[in-house]
Amino acid sequence: MTSDPASVDYLLVRSRRRRKTITISVDPDGSVRVSAPMRTPKTNIEELVARRASWINGVRARLGSRERRQLVSGDALLYLGDPLQLCLERGSVRAPRADLDGQRLTVILPQRIGEDSQRAAVERALTRWYVGCALADFEERVRAWATACELAPSGLLVRNQRTRWGSCSRDGVLRLNWRLVMAPPSVVDYVVVHELAHMRVPNHSAAFWAEVERFLPDYRERRAHLKRIGPQLVL
């Protein structure tokens, strides 16, 4: 662990692979990871971290301000932008499970689970439910948008990412954050198109945003919406 001139501590990971750019990520615990090509001068890395210090501290602040939901009956949850009401029940089940009935999302808990471990059990059940919904929804959206964009991603993975909504690897595999399935469809579509655009332009240059705008002329509004509601897309 090292520290740059802007007093941001970070873990530096140098790659022997064909990495050409420096990337900065913030983990859920607030730690910062910097990935850089093997021969990148240390001064270049420190300069970039110093320039991004405001963004890094902003992400850390958002992570620190996120208050976990209580996850009790009556709590409001989101699914594709629509509100759901959480309902907890006890039943003859071996493991907690979640079922949707209209606008009510019911989690059935085993009788043996105590109050001290109830929240964790509810969160596990909800996470499994959301991940399943996300995979089905994202597969359909990626298929439709890939056809519209005349692209052929090599795969789709639903991941548990705390600080990224999506990514696209060099081999065309899209990785999308399952929490996106809580957001309105227009926001999910924005992230899908954003990552597909990286198959043509791997950076965030003007050419990249022009590619996104070709298919989503209102992408700026969608991006701003995601930024506003992002902290709400949690359990």
Task: Note down, in words, how this protein is organized.
It is a single chain. A hairpin with a 4-residue loop joins strand 10 (166-168) and strand 11 (173-177). It contains six helices and eleven strands. It is of the alpha/beta class and 235 residues long. It folds into three domains: 2-65, no CATH class; 76-132, no CATH class; 134-232, Zincin-like (2-Layer Sandwich). 38% of the residues lie in helices and 25% in strands. A four-stranded mixed β-sheet has the order 1-2-4-3, with helices on one face. A four-stranded mixed β-sheet has the order 5-6-8-7. Residues 1-6 have low confidence and may be disordered.
Secondary structure layout plus pairing:
Layout: E1 2-3, E2 9-15, E3 23-26, E4 32-37, H1 42-51, H2 53-65, E5 76-79, E6 82-91, E7 97-101, E8 104-110, H3 118-149, E9 155-159, E10 166-168, E11 173-177, H4 185-197, H5 206-215, H6 219-229
Parallel strand pairs: 2-4, 6-8, 9-11
Antiparallel strand pairs: 1-2, 3-4, 5-6, 7-8, 10-11
Helix pairs in contact: 3-4, 4-5, 4-6
